[in-house]
Structures are given as structure tokens and as C-alpha cells.
């Protein structure tokens, strides 16, 4: 592990804004229920909550600029920069719910500019549970060949009939006015998308491949949506990719298939791979952890691993030595630094060379000291943290502003509620 600065010397002051009510999380981590995003060059923070409320606040005062009701649970947020003839940026909100709605809101007023229901493509839920709802899992913004704003999104829906499990998914390219330029449909489950800096290639990671689509990574041309190349870890089973991140001509991939991290070149040529949380024998059990997140920038790559599981059973008293770990590598695949994140990271936020990890509970240890927002320099390692009473489940960073969502948690064997549903905002400058 890398040498870290004492935690007391690395904290900064965070401000808090209550977000209302939400069902208290339990010992195991819950699904994505909240979103946060920093827009307008760090001047605006936008939150999305499980009841569908989307609220934009001034970063300095935290006063509400506007608030709207999204048609679904608001679980993802991005922004499109204003064109020359627009007065404000566009806030894009991804939904999980009956309609799987992607909606665009004026960043200045909250007025809805357009709406698209992905359920029209992936289908409606066949069962009234959260896991069956149409779900917009990822948003990414860029520009088209003419320099106009372009939105990319991935939506999916799951269903099960007896022993038969199916996924229905669509990847979209939208113009800034909501016009669909192209779609890419499969029977696999997308989990992440990322676009290159030139806006020419879109990488799509597929986590579960149970049908005809049998590859973990596809790379699409952004103008046409045509398939350019594919890559797969080549492992047995339906688990494939956990995350993708594009850096120039390279793509970093975290593999759920073999629990390794990869750096790929053009056409999917493997430049290197590293063991992250591969199957390891401990006390008579074979343990592993999924590499859930990848981030590549300026020749460095970081991977973050999640919870420990056992090959024979999901229950185990032991822990994989590399669970809940962040590790950064150089362009040759050599380890630069690594550190603990100590709990489950729902989603990794990044801005340039800074990483922000919202850490939830470590459900096997059940230690509230793991509840925190931690940030790292991609080249230097641990740089700071903010402890929370509840669990951190979403984060965003832009320049010197870091934001996170805190959710209340009650460990199943304690009966004590820790924390509250709140927005946390701090300055790293």
C-alpha cells in the first residue's frame, strides 16, 4: 500500500443540504438511488433523488435555482454545453422506472427542452420490482463533426422467465435537440460508456452476455454508430466487463470475467494486463472481488475493486486481500501506487488527474468508519477524505469542487440509523 497522510490532516469542511426522505440502506449495498453532477464550470450542482426530484443549486450559496419532477427515479446526470445561440447549458437526466426516461432541462430555468422514453425500445417491465425496470445506466456527452453538442446513452431492461434470463438494451446518439441520430441494440447488459477526446469513438462495456451478443466491449463510430471493433476477456460464463475508460488511442477495461485490468490499443490489441482481485485460495476457500471501476488519463490508469465473494458461495467470513482497493498503473502497466477505499464504491468520479470515491459500507466488517468520500491524485495517490455518518453513494468533481450524496444506513444487527439523505459540497482548493 502507498504511504498515506494521517486522516486528520487531510479533511476539509463540507457543507450539507438535506434531500428529504429515502428508505434506509441496510448492511449490503443497495442499487443506485441518487445522482449528483457539477455543471456550468463549477457554478452549479445538480442532484437527482429516488423520488424523481431534480434540483439545481448555486455552488457557493447552495440556494435552489430550480427544481423539477423527473418521470422516473433520477439516477444519472450529465450536461451539454450551450451552443452559441443558447442562453444556458442543458442538464441531462437519466431515469430508472416505468418509462426509462432521458430528459433535457434548461440549466438556467429547469424548463424541459425534450424527453425520450427508452422503454419504447427496450420494452416495459414485466414485473413490478426495481431490477426489472427500464434503466438508463450511463450518459456521456461530446460534440459531433460540426462541433455541436452530442449526447450518448445506454439503456437496458432485465426479465426472467423460470430459468431463462434475458437482457434488452439500446445505445443511443442524440443531437442536442433530442433527435436520435442512431441506435445500437443488443441482447446483453451494458454497464458503462466512454468517448474519446476527439469525439470519434464510443466504447461500450457489457457486463452480462447471456444471448447472441457475446463480447464484453464494442467500439462504435460516433457519426454512424457502426461497429469498428470488439474485445472480450475470453472467460467462461456471462460476466464480462465492469467499466471502460478511453485515453487517446487506449481503452482501459476492468474485467469481471477474470478479475483483471486491461489496457487495449487500436483494434483491441492488448498492451498489458494486471491481476486485480483474481481467484485466491484463503483458508480453504477460493475468493475473488470484482474490479468495478476504471479510469484512464494522460497515460495513467486506475482500477477500483469491490466486495469479496467465494466461488462456492456468496457468503464467506474471509476477505480477498485486494478487495475495496484502488490501484494506479503507468503506461507500461507498472504499479505506481495503491490504497484502500475501505468500502463499496458505487461510482467513481474523476476530473483530469483527480479521482473521487464515494465509499459505502463494508458489509462484512460493518465499520461506520468506512463511510467517507475519499479523493486521490492519479499520479500521487491519497489526497483527502470527508467522513460521513451515513454512506456515500454518488459523487462528482469539477475543478476544486467536490460533491457527494449521503444516504442513511442501518446495519441489520445494530438497529441504529446512521446519517441522513443529504447533499455534501466541499472545496478542494
TrEMBL record:
SUPFAM superfamilies: Quinoprotein alcohol dehydrogenase-like, YWTD domain. Residues 51-253 form the Pyrrolo-quinoline quinone repeat domain. InterPro entries: PQQ_b-propeller_rpt, PQQ_rpt_dom, Quinoprotein_ADH-like_sf, WD40/YVTN_repeat-like_dom_sf. Gene3D superfamilies: YVTN repeat-like/Quinoprotein amine dehydrogenase. It comes from the Archaea. This is PQQ-like beta-propeller repeat protein. It comes from Natrinema zhouii.
